[in-house]
Amino acid sequence: MKRVLVCLTLFAVAASAVSIGVAGAPADVSKAVGAKELAAAAKTKAEDLGKAVANEAAYSRAMENKIVAKDAGVIACLAQALVEHKDGEASGINATGLRDAAIVLSRTKKLADATAALKNVNEALSGKGEKGEKDHPWNKLVNMHRMMEEFEFQGGKLRRVLKRPRRLENYSENAAVLVVLGLAMEADTHEVKDKAKLPQWTKWSKEYHQAMSGLNTAIKAGDGAKAKSIFDAANESCETCHEVFRD
Ligand code: HEC
Question: What confidence tens digit (pLDDT) does each residue in 176-186 have?
Fold first, then answer.
């Protein structure tokens, strides 16, 4: 009888640990990044997507480059971060609705569907539309390949401005994207085929989003030299991880 109880207790502990894993980002988003830049980044992405669905020619170019799946996946991560952020409500965004609309948008394959889904994204950005569940697993927000492409895209933008810092504060939203993608990377361990290597994945992902969080703080403080040194150091972890898990 005692043994059964112990087993049941262990089971309950394990089950609650799993549900905690699903219920939130691998770190406290309120400490990692500001709600303001999360909101700004989501709005920028929605504007970019507006251009991508402006006409058939633009749309087919965007689809070829997987821009819709990539940018909508990024919005989904930003939105979930806003859902969990202590200042998320104050942004005026319907964050749960934004996340759900962005996920639908990321999967669309036709211009008409993408246009309709983007309309819901924009409505949620202005605080309207249907609301969704607060909880959402972080490994089901963005496709990993698209996430990696966004690392490159945002990395390129930041590399340019950090070479000759100008209006650095405007780039806190770019750093915010990298923070939330780093959180999604830590949560999405499906590329780790050898489970003994899980701690390495976790370590490098964690180091990456923590560094991006520091980068965001340095950028907001207008400290270009500090931002550049954090950025350059963090980019070395790209190769370290690729050597073990990609190549
Ligand atoms: C924690 C591990 C990890 C880190 C850190 C990481 N990557 Fe990756 N990356 C992967 C894996 C695994 C793949 C292969 C899976 C895929 O593409 O879906 C990959 C694939 C890529 C690809 C896809 C195209 C290709 O050449 O195969 C690009 C681009 C990329 N990463 C860029 C980056 C950049 C830039 C950084 C740093 C800012 C980075 N990655 C950091 C694990 C990582």
Answer: 999 999 999 99
d(CA 162, ligand 1 centre) in Å: 22
The 10s digit of each residue's pLDDT in 160-180 is 999 999 999 999 999 999 999
Closest protein CA for atom 28 of ligand 1: 148
- pLDDT, residue 4, reads 46
Q: Cα dist. 213→27, 49, 173, 181, 200 in Å?
A: 11, 26, 11, 11, 20
DSSP, collapsed to helix, strand or coil, labels residue 222 as coil
pLDDT tens-digit readout, 71-90:
999 999 999 999 999 999 99
CA distance 49 to 46: 5
Per-residue model confidence (pLDDT) at position 22? 55
Domain with CATH 1.20.120 in the chain: 138-245
CATH 3.30.700 for the 138-245 domain, yes or no: no
What is the CB < 6 Å shell around ligand 1?
A: 144-145, 148-149, 151-152, 155, 185, 191, 201, 204-205, 208, 235, 237-238, 241-242, 245-246
